[in-house]
């Protein structure tokens, strides 16, 4: 059994993961309208991953006999200034999620809640990987710079990163 305070904090994390899922889905749709197929697929996959992160906490709360609450998701933006600023926004959101996971770990430590501490380790690894992924994306965007074919090259690079990620995931499940 975990404390009510811990359950509340985990329900807040559910809301944050849900918001990320909707934000990334919205970004995917904006990329689609901009004709950026690689970015569309990349953001769609990110959105699906965030949904999984959310459901993972639902399942955990249920397992420890707590009530997982479906969150209200505030309206996320539908338009973005550019694909470059969109990717920066993703990185910033991931940093926010990492900080939130760290706060949960702090709370679990304070409460000597070893079950939740153990559960949260998966998120520690996931956040390290997601931040590294977004740093790679931003580095590529920086390298490509500004030019007449910028969007074409960015989309191509993001498509390649997406394929690498998919292949890595498939290899893990084999
Ligand atoms: Fe689930 Fe990318 O934070």
Model regions low in confidence, pLDDT < 50 over at least 5 residues: none
Query: Any idea how many domains?
Result: 1
Q: How far is the first residue's CA from the last residue's CA? A: 34 Å
The shape is elongated
CATH superfamily grouping: Ferritin, core subunit, four-helix bundle
Which band does the percent of strand residues land in? under 5%
CATH class: Mainly Alpha
Order of helical and strand elements: HHHHH
Helix content: over 70%
Bound molecules: MU-OXO-diiron
**CATH architecture name:** Up-down Bundle
Query: What's the CATH topology label?
Result: Ferritin
| Total strand segments | 0
Major beta-sheet overview: none
Mean pLDDT comes to 97
Total helix count? 5
Report the structural category. mainly alpha
Briefly say what this structure is.
The chain is an all-alpha fold. The chain has 5 helices and no strands.
Your description of this structure?
The protein has a single domain, classed as Ferritin, CATH 1.20.1260. The chain is 80% helix and 0% strand. Helix 2 packs parallel to helix 5. It is elongated, with a radius of gyration of 17 Å.
Question: In terms of topology, how is this protein built?
Answer:
Elements: H1 4-33, H2 37-63, H3 83-110, H4 114-144, H5 150-173
The protein binds MU-OXO-diiron.
């Amino acid at each position: 059994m975990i404390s009510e305070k811990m359950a509340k904090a985990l329900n807040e994390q559910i809301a944050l993961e849900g918001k990320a899922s909707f934000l990334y889905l919205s970004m995917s749709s904006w990329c689609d309208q901009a004709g950026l197929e690689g970015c569309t697929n990349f953001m769609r996959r990110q959105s699906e991953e965030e949904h999984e992160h959310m459901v993972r906490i639902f399942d955990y709360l249920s397992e420890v006999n707590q009530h997982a609450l479906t969150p209200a998701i505030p309206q996320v933006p539908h338009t973005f200034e550019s694909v470059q600023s969109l990717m920066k926004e993703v990185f910033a959101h991931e940093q926010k999620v990492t900080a939130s996971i760290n706060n949960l770990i702090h709370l679990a430590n304070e409460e000597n809640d070893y079950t939740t501490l153990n559960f949260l380790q998966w998120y520690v690894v996931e956040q390290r990987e997601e931040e590294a992924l977004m740093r790679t994306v931003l580095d590529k965007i920086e390298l490509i710079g500004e030019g007449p074919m910028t969007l074409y090259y960015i989309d191509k690079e993001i498509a390649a990163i997406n394929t690498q990620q998919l292949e890595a995931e498939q290899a893990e499940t084999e």
